[in-house]
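Hi everyone,

Forwarding the result from last night's run.
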Amino acid sequence: MNLASFIYRLLPVLLLAFLTACPSKLPFDYSAFYNHRPRSILVLPPLNLTTDVNAPYSYLSTISNPLAECGYYVFPVAVIDAYMKENGLPSSEEMHAVSLEKIKDIIGADAVLYVTIEEWGQKYIVLQSITTIKTSARLVDTASGEVIWHGTQSISQGSGGGHPLVMLINAVVVQIVDSMTDFTHDLSRVANQDMINNPNEGFLAGPYLVSKESEHCINR
């Protein structure tokens, strides 16, 4: 048997071994979401693991719209933040520690969205600017305490490339613009739309979704 014939006969075995060694991603388990279909969602100010003090409130300003478009009533984030602070809970950590029973009894939310910001902002690598946002979130049913949905979102947007002189000029311009414009806000809006509307692991369509044929959320 020549080498070519040997390799040809060996290919199916190698392919099978490769497919077996690379596990496919399991579909998202929506059973808990089906069992506890919330009508209203309270979004608490996110836990912030970054050095950007503006990250939590920039994030909050971009999360309500995709949730509402998905068919859920979203408690006004600014009102909830002010209410919590007025009642002796000045930090996100303290707000996250409030019992679900109290949230359900006092505010009346069906579910709470807990978010953690892991990365947020611009990084400069040589002559390239990269804006990155990385978050993790979980939706918890207030009556049972069960996590009915969880997800992560990581998105980056870079600028740079090409001729070194062009890259240098671009880097200077980007740094000047960055000092006046918060690109993370727009990127956060995109990240939240992607997280909520992801066709494979996003939110199920809420009860107030105007059209069940809408492109928003998952109609199941």
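The domain at 27-197 is CATH 3.40.50.10610 (Rossmann fold).

Cheers,
N.
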